[in-house]
Amino acid sequence: MARSDDLYSLPADIPVPIDDKACDHLPGLQLPSVSLLSTAGRLVDLAGLAGTTVVYCYPRTGLPDQGPPPGWDLIPGARGCTPQSCAFRDHYQELQALQAAVFGLSTQDTDYQREAAQRLHLPFELLSDAGLAFTRALQLPTFEAAGMVLIKRLTLIIDDGQIVKVFYPVFPPDQNAAEVIEWLAKGEVV
């Protein structure tokens, strides 16, 4: 059964998330060593990566044949995971030119993420924090919907394992990749 909404675009009337200060503790933190399974089938420890890494955390990508959880569009910041992922895909070459590695991260399992990565032709890996180890270690903001614990949308800029910039709240999600590029282009990452 097909969706009745457009998975690839944002409705005009979705609520804007507010800054609840839930990420204020993150800038300057050294990442904990947590191995996350990627859609490439390997374990990635973000704390051990050299150079600049962009990690956009998102609640969940939808499926083309399933509608969103009940009330999804009424949750501030929930809608827009597919448009955000597509924007990072579309700006991937620019991010690479800025010497930044890119990962998406959600609490969905790797098989679910792999479907999205293939369908959306993502040139980067998605990381699964289905066990919430990374989320809990960093005290990332979460919310619950349809029995799932999901990460609120945020983007981390990491330099040699240390968080140097946090975008939160992210809105609109489809503009986040361009914001990240603009910030990186200023050369503020050491």
Descriptive overview:
Helix content is 22%, strand content 23%. The chain is built from five helices and nine strands, in the order βββααβαβαββββα. The chain has 190 residues and is α+β, with helices and mostly antiparallel strands. The N and C termini lie far apart (49 Å). Strands 2-1-5-4-3-8-9 form a seven-stranded mixed sheet. It has one domain: Glutaredoxin. It has helices at 81-90, 92-97, 110-119, 133-138, 176-185, and strands at residues 35-38, 43-45, 52-57, 100-106, 125-128, 142-145, 148-151, 154-159, 162-167.
In terms of per-residue confidence, which ranges show pLDDT below 50 for 5 or more consecutive residues? Answer: none
Q: Any idea what the radius of gyration is?
A: 15 Å
Main structural class? alpha+beta
Architecture per CATH nomenclature, i.e. the level-2 architecture:
3-Layer(aba) Sandwich
Distance between the termini: 49 Å
Strand content: 15-25%
Summarize this structure as a short list of keywords or feature phrases.
two-stranded antiparallel ribbon; Glutaredoxin; 5 helices; alpha+beta
Briefly say what this structure is.
The protein is an alpha+beta fold. The protein is built from 5 helices and 9 strands, in the order E-E-E-H-H-E-H-E-H-E-E-E-E-H.
Topology:
Layout: E1 35-38, E2 43-45, E3 52-57, H1 81-90, H2 92-97, E4 100-106, H3 110-119, E5 125-128, H4 133-138, E6 142-145, E7 148-151, E8 154-159, E9 162-167, H5 176-185
Parallel strand pairs: 3-4, 4-5
Antiparallel strand pairs: 1-2, 1-5, 3-8, 6-7, 8-9
